[in-house]
Amino acid sequence: MERILRKFPKPSKGTLMFFGGLAVAFVVWHFASLHIDQAIRLPNFVTTMQAFFTNWTNSWVMENLGITLWRVLRGVGYASLIGLPLGMFMGYSKTIRQAISPLMNSIRQIPIMAWVPMAILWFGLGEGPTLFIIFMSAVFPLMINTLSGVMNIDPNYISAAKSMGASTLKIFVTIILPGAFPSFLTGLRMAVGLGWMSVICAEFIATSSGFGFLLIQAQIQFRTADLWSLMIMAAVTGYFIDRILLLVERSLTSWRFKDAAEN
Predict the structure, then answer these.
(1) Where are the domains of the chain?
(2) Is the pTM of this model over 0.90?
């Protein structure tokens, strides 16, 4: 038995502190809910956890979770089609950067929820507004991180390629794209996280399906324990999406993570 236990890695101090803090938070929640004794303000911890685990086996909840995840995938995909090439061109050409940067930096300052009324006017209710909101949340992190990646490429590589007669297309394919790719992956993690948060907010208003729709229905019907359990599900789902993207980033750009702390 001792030999078997040795094969498992020992948990780090940070991991132990995390689970210890989580346990303390749950204990405080439990006794605070008993003290307040108003489920609409703070639901019972045990009741909320029962709803949390039940929801993972609820086909209706999982169907709507799948709808939201598919929306995020599509919205971030559309944002990548714009953010990646735009960031590459802006990083490569100072003229393009000076022409586009003021407009892009102005637009990205607009709060994302301010776009919801306009998106509904443009696309109506349903998929259109939610995809647009995800797109607007994701495109700027992708663009900015790609731009940063291109600008960090050693200009001597580009100069050497030009001196050997390489075309602009060849330079983009062999130097710019590989050089910007690690930063693009970092931007992708940020974009998916922002897209996940924004789509749930958009689903409060613009759709009659999706995970955000379930949240607003629980709130309207005063099912507070269910509301809290869905919020925890959103947090857990978002966390695991980020971990998956981090694993992809580590596998594709492993040299960046040698001797580095986990993000």
Answers:
(1) 43-254
(2) no
